[in-house]
Amino acid sequence: MIATGATGKPITILAVDDHPLLREGIAGVIEGQPDMQLVAEATNGLEAVARYREHQPDVTLMDIQMPQMNGIDAMIAIREEFPNARIVVLTTYQGDVQALRAIKAGAAGYLLKSMLRKELLETIRVVHAGRRRIPPEIAVELAEHVADDALSEREIEVLRLAATGSSNKRIGAQLNISEETVKAHMKSILAKLVANDRTHAVTIALKRGIIEV
Question: Which CATH code of 2.40.50.140, 3.40.50.2300, 3.40.190.10, 3.40.50.670 fits the domain covering 11-144?
Answer without folding.
Answer: 3.40.50.2300
